[in-house]
Specification:
Radius of gyration: 20 Å
Number of helices: 16
Structural class: mainly alpha
Order of helices and strands: HEHHEHEHHEHHHHEHHEEEHHHEEH
Number of strands: 10
Strand order of the largest sheet: 1-2-3
Bound molecules: (2R)-2,3-dihydroxypropanoic acid
CATH topology: Glycosyltransferase
Largest sheet: 3 strands, antiparallel
Mean pLDDT: 97
Length: 420
């Protein structure tokens, strides 16, 4: 009988293109940044060397300025839009021009823990590249304090309600006609709208027109919002990279300074009226005014507050499976539309990591059990309806398989160190 563990390993192997892993066939035919870091974590449960290879491939496409792109277009695929011609970054292999949540250092540390001896040389080789990426985040994206994103795709939580106020100011009306490909692979009702897409492309075109000059994009680009999700992920990743650097005998003073500055900026994204961390439009200073799953990543960075605990209880009790990506009581909530409500196994894994690190073991176990139930009922989907468990988006998803092997499929007593 094939077990879910066997199925998860088979998905990683099926999506493995030799050194890098597709998120899923069809919908996402290239290497995506944070998907790839999760793939590495999954591979580490049965092939440690392959895990490090995945991270090496990701960092091999690091730009000279330290940025690690969100997509690496290893081989052309007409089934995806917007492809390399739209991004026009002039990199080889071709890449997109924005980044994605920097989970790599955190997951690299967990992978190293899983086989310290084999991992030492591998992580030592990666360390300078990870440090350069963190420096890029600090210099190019943290000028306002918290992490600013220049495109909703940079957040990884593409169309969550957090970005609505920033997106409202983007003019998508002058984008030339194009054909979307995502809606040919999965149910269009579960994907962002055409209005969203027009604006996504308009923001990409701005970046391309200024030669992906970060300073110009941050100063004048059509979209600039503070993202609680990446802020907490980066803060945790800084701290993990400091631990890695210390263990390898590096001077981590600079990294400690970046972490300290980022922690000091957290009040900028605390919305007292909402009683939670909140995204903020850095052009107008207005808060999004809506609770998203990015706020709950505060647990990862030891930044939770009693108000946030209460919000977690409230939001979680409104659904049956996992943490929803958006507030179920908000008017914008849609339980099947991408990041506007569905629960994402991979975000649940990150939140659980934070719940565990902050000593909230019972909550971490509840989240693990609910996420495992979704996968048991329906398989390794991209995301799920948190109320009735309907599987959504792409099937046979790499990062869902990866978090099954490392976390969701593990009974608490045998969980990988550091995870729930
Ligand atoms: C997509 O293509 O939907 C991605 O989320 C953008 O990176």
């Amino acid at each position: 009988m094939t077990t879910l563990d066997d199925q998860a390993r088979a998905i990683l192997k099926k999506n493995d293109k030799g050194g890098y892993t597709l998120p899923t066939h069809g919908l996402y035919p290239y290497q995506w940044n944070w998907d790839s870091a999760f793939a590495a974590w999954g591979f580490a449960t049965f092939d440690n060397a392959r895990a490090w290879d995945e991270l090496d491939t990701l960092f091999a496409s690091q730009w000279d300025n330290g940025m690690v792109p969100h997509i690496i277009f290893h081989q052309s695929d007409p089934g995806y839009f917007p492809g390399p011609d739209v991004w026009g970054t002039g990199q080889w292999p071709e890449t997109s021009g924005i980044s994605q949540p920097p989970v790599a250092a955190t997951l690299a540390r967990l992978i190293w823990d899983m086989d310290p001896e084999a991992g030492r040389a591998r992580i030592a080789r990666l360390y300078p590249a990870m440090e350069r990426w963190h420096r890029w985040w600090h210099e190019a994206r943290c000028g306002h304090g918290p992490v600013a994103i220049i495109h909703p795709w940079e957040s990884g939580r593409d169309n969550c309600p957090d970005w609505d106020i920033g997106m409202a100011g983007v003019d998508g009306s002058r984008v030339a006609p194009y054909t979307r490909r995502d809606t040919g692979h999965v149910n269009p009702e579960m994907r962002p709208t055409k209005e969203d897409y027009d604006r996504y492309i308009a923001i990409v075109e701005f970046g391309r027109d200024v030669g992906w000059d970060d300073a110009r994009i941050v100063a004048d680009g059509p979209f600039l919002m503070a993202d609680p999700g990446i802020t907490f992920i980066l803060l945790r990743a800084h701290e993990d990279l400091i631990a890695i650097g210390d263990a390898l005998g590096h001077d981590t003073t600079e990294l400690q300074g970046w972490a300290k500055a980022l922690r000091a900026a957290l009040p900028v994204i605390w919305n007292a009226e909402l009683g939670a961390y909140d995204a903020r439009d850095l052009r107008s200073d207005a808060f999004a005014g809506v609770l998203g799953s990015g706020a709950f990543l505060a647990y990862l960075a030891d930044a939770a507050t009693p108000e946030l605990d209460a919000q977690l209880d409230r939001v979680w009790d409104k659904v049956n499976f996992g943490i929803p990506s958006a507030d179920p009581e908000a008017a914008s909530f849609n339980p099947r539309k991408y990041w506007r409500g569905p629960t994402w196994p991979v975000v649940n894994a990150l939140i659980a990591l934070g719940l565990t690190s902050s000593g909230r073991h019972e909550l971490a176990e509840r989240l693990r059990a609910e996420t495992a139930e979704l996968i048991r009922q329906h398989g390794f989907y991209e995301y799920f309806d948190p109320i009735d468990a309907t599987p959504c988006g792409g099937a046979d998803f790499t990062w869902t398989a990866a978090i099954w092997l490392t976390w969701a499929g593990k009974a608490p007593a045998t969980a990988v160190k550091g995870a729930a």
